[in-house]
Structure to design on (481 residues):
């Protein structure tokens, strides 16, 4: 089952893939993310993050509340670069957001 | 068991640190420890664009970059890595947008060719043969080197780290250096959150934190760290071969082997306070400039943006070597945005320098003393 249970649909990673990496010593979500791209796809970790944290919790014995879920980065929802560019040009190019 | 003594302690688990560790171990040094405050690549290495180009404007940079590129071509075999470092040699297409820049490119290509780098000066029509959807409006010319490319920074660092560990190097992650012990102007040890390690040699490969590490032993390095941002898009089928880059337009953009586009630019007025949060201004300027040069990217959704630290030196060239104030304290820092691509050279040259061997490439001019002596290096081709 582990081989056909997908944990990360965006980056094609199965439960077995994640367990193998944890066994190799990648013991935080950030490390797993960087080495395997879990959580880097269009879902931004919404599907895989809780599943991976559960696996990490089982492997390390730490409760999920003590595990670092990594940094949540913008945007919340993907946006076309053209939409950002048009908006920027409409506002007169140089904008000074804080 | 945490080691209490070491022959060499390297501070920083980015690609520079593990490359130095690997090379020292390969040369037979025993008892090497690498200390990393978080995990490998958690600093600048894991946040960088991971491009490697041989198209530089000084002989020194051309040679170091060529050395590194040659290494990357054979890295999987040399390091015996069981993963994939994803080295895509799709070339770098560098665009000029002013006559001055075009003139500089002519000189650069001449220099590069004389050093065995197969770069070419291209007309805009020739550039469009490589990137058919390039909008050449406002551009003058381009240079191209097919040997340039980009890699996966996590796997490349892991490849070095795994090879170093096989040679006996100890890598302590989630371990912070809290102090450096020196007596009578000589390095004696390193204090960490997991205990003290006695050593006579400390190598500062701390990237964005290099100046802070140096201060622990009373050394003021003329370095500061500046936030630089990147964004990544959704994945699509391959449409862009080379890294597209322009100094004057201030951008770089690549399509990684997995299909996503990664792009970045340098912004004026970026904070210099070790901040790595994301900002609006970068996103807007990036979207505006890249969709002008590569119009089909308008329809690409961007998924994520992040930031890392450029460790800037006054002449934007690295600092390699010992410092005069403290015996046994070495620096490999100040890469100013090019630490990843130069890492194979950094590893070999620093190992040679520390062991008192003749260096494969001349690097005396990269000593930190150059700033006091006014011998800064002028490199015309930096972002």
């Amino acid at each position: 089952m582990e081989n056909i249970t997908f944990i990360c649909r965006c980056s094609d990673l199965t439960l077995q893939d994640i367990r193998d990496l944890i066994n190799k010593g990648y013991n935080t979500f950030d490390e797993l993310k960087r080495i395997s791209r879990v959580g880097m796809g269009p879902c931004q970790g919404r599907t895989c993050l809780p599943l991976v944290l559960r696996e990490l919790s089982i492997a390390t014995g730490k409760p999920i509340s003590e595990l670092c879920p990594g940094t949540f980065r913008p945007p919340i929802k993907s946006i076309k670069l053209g939409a950002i560019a048009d908006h920027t040009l409409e506002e007169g190019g140089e904008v000074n957001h804080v | 068991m945490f080691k209490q003594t070491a022959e060499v302690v390297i501070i920083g688990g980015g690609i520079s640190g593990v490359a130095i560790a690997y090379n020292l171990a390969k040369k037979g040094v025993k008892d090497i420890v690498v200390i990393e405050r978080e995990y490998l690549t958690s600093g600048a290495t894991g946040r960088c664009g991971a491009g490697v180009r041989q198209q530089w404007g000084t002989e020194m940079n051309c040679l170091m970059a060529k050395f590194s590129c040659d290494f990357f071509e054979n890295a999987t075999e040399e390091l015996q890595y069981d993963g994939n470092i994803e080295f895509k040699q799709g070339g770098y297409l560098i665009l000029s947008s002013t006559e001055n820049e075009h003139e500089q490119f002519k000189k650069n290509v001449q220099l590069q060719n004389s050093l065995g780098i197969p770069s070419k000066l291209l007309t805009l029509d020739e550039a469009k043969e490589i990137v058919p959807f390039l909008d050449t409006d406002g551009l003058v010319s381009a240079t191209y080197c097919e040997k340039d490319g980009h890699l996966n920074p996590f796997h490349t660092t892991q490849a070095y780290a795994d090879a170093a560990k096989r040679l006996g190097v100890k890598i302590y992650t989630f371990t912070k250096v809290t102090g450096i012990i020196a007596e009578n102007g000589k390095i004696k040890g390193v204090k960490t959150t997991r205990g003290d390690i006695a050593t006579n040699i400390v190598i500062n490969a701390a990237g964005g934190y290099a100046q802070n590490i140096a201060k622990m032993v009373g050394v003021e390095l003329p370095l500061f760290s500046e936030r630089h941002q990147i964004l990544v898009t959704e994945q699509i089928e391959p449409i862009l071969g080379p890294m597209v880059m322009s100094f004057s337009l201030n951008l770089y953009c690549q399509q990684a082997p997995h299909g996503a586009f990664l792009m970045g630019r340098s912004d004026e007025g970026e904070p210099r306070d070790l901040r790595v949060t994301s900002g609006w201004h970068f996103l807007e300027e990036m979207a505006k400039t890249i969709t002008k040069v590569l119009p089909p990217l308008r329809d690409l959704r961007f998924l994520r943006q992040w930031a890392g630290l450029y460790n800037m030196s006054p002449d934007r060239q690295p600092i390699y070597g010992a410092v005069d104030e403290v015996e046994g304290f070495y620096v490999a820092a100040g890469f100013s945005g090019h630490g990843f691509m130069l890492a194979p050279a950094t590893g070999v040259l620093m190992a040679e320098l520390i062991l008192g061997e003749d260096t494969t490439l001349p690097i005396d001019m990269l000593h930190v003393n150059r700033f006091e002596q006014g011998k800064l290096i002028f490199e015309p081709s930096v972002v």
Q: What stands out?
A: The mean pLDDT of chain B is 97. Chain B touches chain A at residues 38-42, 46, 154-155, 158, 232-235, 258, 278-281, 283-285, 287-288, 290-292, 297-306 (CB under 8 Å). Chain B is about 25% helix and 25% strand. The helical segments of chain B are 15-26, 59-78, 99-114, 124-130, 153-166, 210-215, 280-293, 339-354.
